[in-house]
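Re-run with default settings, no changes from the original entry. Doing this only to confirm the output is reproducible before filing.
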Amino acid sequence: MVEDDDALVARLKAGDDTAFTVLVHRHSGRVYGIGLSMLRNEQDARDVVQDTFLNVYRRIDSFRGEAPFKSWLGRIATNNALMKLRTRRRKPEVSLQIRSPKFNDDGQHERDIVDFSPLADKISESRELGQRIRETVERLPDKYRTVLVLADYQQLSMKQIAELLDLTVPNVKTRLHRARLAVRESLADYLSGDD
């Protein structure tokens, strides 16, 4: 039987470190995804994973369970990514890292799962569109990309984003609108077949 997050959190609060290990394995991919989508750097995303779970371990007693553990964890990850963004702005660095293949927690090469039921050209179009969207989002200025990722990928509310970024809700809505508009405009030629 698989324990839910609430049971694991209760065990962790009681001092059971094996529950922490299960939570790390269960949620590290999502935390990594948050870091990578906000920071666009694999090493920084790994740092976010490490910092986030260190924060969770140290602050688990402050988790009151008013929201799901997954939401609390996502906020910690987002805050860690935002702190790294702020630090990066103060002292920009150039990455010399060569992109390496992705590996899962067992050290095995990770492969994309492909649904072969659609027609081959539809698969190709979907992949290409997905890649174009990712590239477009990556090119957005930080202030727009961050809001877009938090709203559309992390599913945070306007109020939650405003609190995280220390902005007003109208300002968040404006940035999100501009980010979505920039993505739409960037993809217009591709979607119309002119690209």
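Helices lie at 5-13, 17-39, 42-59, 69-90, 120-139, 142-153, 158-165, 169-192. Residues 28 and 50 are 9 Å apart (CA to CA).
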